[in-house]
Design goal:
The complex is a heterodimer of chains A (326) and B (333).
Chain A: E1 2-4, H1 5-19, E2 23-27, H2 43-47, E3 52-54, H3 59-71, E4 75-82, H4 83-86, H5 90-97, H6 100-103, E5 113-118, H7 133-136, E6 143-145, H8 150-162, E7 167-172, E8 179-181, E9 195-198, E10 203-207, H9 212-224, E11 229-233, E12 236-238, H10 242-252, E13 255-262, H11 267-279, E14 288-292, H12 301-307, H13 311-323
Parallel strand pairs in A: 2-3, 2-4, 4-5, 5-7, 6-7, 10-11, 10-13, 13-14
Antiparallel strand pairs in A: 1-8, 6-12, 9-11
Helix pairs in contact in A: 1-8, 3-5, 9-13, 10-11
Chain B: H1 14-39, H2 54-61, E1 69-71, H3 77-83, H4 87-95, H5 128-142, E2 148-153, H6 160-171, E3 176-182, E4 185-186, E5 189-190, H7 200-205, E6 210-215, H8 219-234, E7 240-245, H9 263-270, H10 274-284, H11 290-312
The chains are: A alpha/beta (326), B alpha/beta (333).
Bound molecules: thiamine diphosphate (TPP).
């Protein structure tokens, strides 16, 4: 069937609501408004206000309440409009959700899912455009998912809800309208492994989420120049599927990491470090990185584009790595 | 907690009335143009217009001194304009041009202007309240007699930052005026669906802050209440709070399909359009002749037309400057 990324997410929520009466959705404007990105459109009518709960503008409060409800046996899906607003709930996410299991000596599990949009590209300026999923991936106790495909948008949620620990799902804002063919039987997917989205032998382009389409475009362009790029979609930023990354690099001997987050202290830095730690002698070139410029994302279109990873910059980084003497 | 309104309002000076009408018209026409330019894809990102709420900014800003500080939200075009930021610089900002008040870095939601002490546009709901408290703290510590005015929507009342800020301001008796623009909806969430206690002034009173509810469609009532509050704050009376009851006539932003309210409700409120209210009462009192009204409209139109010309002639900041303004630029030793 034809589906958009947004519809695939909605199908995932609906499926979870039907499977398990403990599942409920809460967040700002998820009900009457239809969801700020229209993901939950129609679900209020279908499931009622008890399970599709509009919250006041109280991110710390309702995320914390989600943690409490999870402790109390429910399976909450908490929606935060964008990652920038999740900063108001950072205390609850890091000090409670991520830490309770450990602090309680293994007694208290927090089976909570938090969904939020992330990323730039829509001229929304510095308080609505950041990519902070890499930050969250710094925190032990959290699992970080970054669905980039329709299958993952459809299937990651249920698997995340079955996880006894807190899972954060980051939906890149540029993906909501992406549409394509989704199998009628599409359902839960694994949330442990990275996926190879394009096989290739010359270089590994490693990315996730919103930059996957640009990386695939770059790979096509590189193919025209005789560079056969492999495209690896991380899918999960924590825990990282190190085995798939290392196995790919062992075959291609070159790697470029593409990440919309800022370069310093980023998930791309982590991946680069793991490759050099564990596959140094497989490498024929230094690990390359394409990240966002280290600025709060500006409003004007030309500046925003200049700040973000682009197909051209990805191609250039791959050419540089491929051109390096082996 | 309703206000200390004088039972009989002093008679309106017709010149002042026309001035207030012009102020509201300037905001209205600028924003009507913004909506048009958004549809023409000249303005991008999020655009939140203030149409219907103009009496609030027009009335409150009338009472401020040039050194007073202002903090607003992403629905701040009118506050910036009435504070003295040039319409051309506001529009150029929304076009993303370097001639904009923030060089195109901020856009509609992030208008700033140091010269007029306009501390912005803030796109994090309630994010401006603690800033306002700090600005007022600085004034108090430096012994200045300035007032900081902070605008925010009633949606912000649910955030912890609202409560923390009110408490701090009251505890330290800071010179800040909180102006809650209660337009009844936070995006699609009606006040009664987000607050257990919908009397917002009462919440402020709970922090021992003098708080009055005011008809935010009546610019004269807003001005009068704001003047009393600002005078009280300036003379050391500690923080004050106004709940300005108003309504947004348009969608929350350009992306809002408005599923959450009835058209009839919008139409009912439009009957209390703040511009029409003042215009009619002045006409009825023989204070506004037909040609005077036409002149006000023409003046506002001319300002907007000039602003569009200014913005259209704007230029892009060179991309080489992308990483400027992340850290302060210091002159070489
Ligand atoms: C912390 C935070 N959460 C959510 C949002 C998304 N958002 C933007 S405006 C808005 C509604 C705010 O309503 P209100 O404060 O009443 O102001 P109004 O828009 O009505 O002027 C929401 C939910 C945000 N910008 N910041």
């Amino acid at each position: 069937m034809k589906s958009s990324y947004r519809e695939a997410l909605r199908a995932g929520i609906r499926d979870a609501m039907q499977r398990d009466p403990r599942v409920f959705l809460m967040g700002e404007d998820v009900g009457a408004y239809g969801g700020s990105f229209a993901v939950s459109l129609g679900l209020l009518e279908e499931f009622g206000p008890g399970r599709i709960r509009d919250t006041p503008l109280s991110e710390s409060g309702f995320v914390g309440a989600g943690i409490g409800a999870a402790l109390g046996g429910m399976r909450p899906i908490v929606e935060i409009m964008t990652v920038n607003f999740s900063l108001l709930a950072l205390d609850q996410i890091v000090n409670n959700a991520a830490s309770l299991l450990h602090m309680s000596g293994g007694q208290f599990h927090v089976p909570l899912v938090i969904r939020m949009s992330t990323g730039a590209g829509r001229q929304l300026g510095a308080q609505h455009s950041h990519s902070l999923e890499g930050w969250y991936a710094h925190v032990p106790g959290l699992r970080i998912l970054v669905p980039a495909t329709l299958e993952d948008a459809r299937g990651m949620l249920w698997t995340a809800l079955e996880d006894p620990d807190p899972v954060l799902i980051f939906e890149h804002g540029s993906l909501y309208n992406v549409a394509g063919e989704l199998d009628d039987n599409a359902g839960p997917v694994d949330i442990d492994s990275a996926a190879i989205r394009r096989h290739g032998s010359d270089i590994s382009l490693i990315t996730y989420g919103g930059t996957l389409p640009a990386v695939l475009d770059a790979a096509e362009q590189l193919a025209g120049e005789g560079i056969d790029a492999e495209v690896l979609d991380l899918r999960t930023l924590r825990p990282l599927d190190e085995a798939t990354i290392l196995e790919s690099v062992a075959r291609t001997h070159r790697a470029v990491v593409v990440d919309e987050g800022w370069r310093s202290g980023s998930i791309s830095a982590e991946i680069s470090a793991r490759i050099t730690e564990n596959a140094f002698f497989d490498l024929d070139a230094p690990v390359g990185r394409v990240c966002s410029a280290e600025v709060p994302i500006p409003y004007s279109k030309h500046m925003e584009l200049a700040a973000l990873p682009s197909v051209e910059r990805i191609v250039a980084a791959a050419q540089e790595a491929a051109g390096a003497r082996g | 907690m309703t206000g200390p309104m004088s039972p009989t309002r002093s008679p309106l000076d017709p010149e002042h009335g026309r001035h207030l009408l012009l102020q509201m018209l300037r905001v209205r026409q600028l924003e009507e143009k913004c909506v048009e330019l958004y549809s023409a894809a000249k303005i991008r990102g999020f655009l939140h217009v203030y149409i219907g709420e103009e009496a609030v900014a027009a009335g409150v800003l009338e009472t401020l001194s040039p050194d007073d500080a202002l903090v607003a939200t992403y629905r701040e075009h009118g506050h910036a304009l009435l504070r003295g930021v040039a319409a051309g610089a506001i529009l150029a900002e929304m076009y993303g041009y370097v001639e904009g008040c923030c060089r195109g870095r901020g856009g509609s939601m992030h208008l700033f202007d140091a010269a007029t002490h306009f501390y912005g546009g803030n796109a994090i709901v309630a994010g401006g309240l603690p800033l306002a408290v700090g600005l007022a703290l600085a004034d108090k510590m430096a012994g200045r007699s300035n007032v900081t005015v902070c605008f925010f929507g009633e949606g912000a009342v649910a955030e912890g930052e609202f409560h923390e800020s009110l408490n701090l301001a009251a505890l330290w008796q800071l010179p800040v005026l909180f102006c809650c623009e209660n337009n009844l909806y936070a995006m699609g969430t009606a006040l009664g669906r987000s607050e257990s206690q919908t009397d917002i002034a009462l919440k402020a009173a709970g922090y021992e802050i003098s708080a009055w509810a005011v008809d935010g469609m009546d610019v004269l009532a807003v001005e009068e209440a704001a003047r009393r509050a600002v005078d009280a704050v300036r003379s050391g009376g500690g923080p004050h709070f106004l709940e300005l009851r108003t309504y947004r006539f348009r969608a929350h932003s350009m992306f809002d399909p408005e599923r959450y309210r009835e058209k009839a409700e919008v139409l009912r409120w439009q009957e209390r359009d703040p511009i029409t209210l003042l215009r009619s009462s002045m006409e009825a009192a023989g204070q506004l002749a037909g040609e005077e009204w036409a002149q006000l409209q023409a003046d506002a139109e001319a300002e907007v037309a000039a602003a569009v010309d200014f913005a259209e002639a704007g230029t892009l900041e060179p991309v080489e400057e992308l990483t400027r303004f992340v850290y302060s630029e210091r002159s070489a030793p």
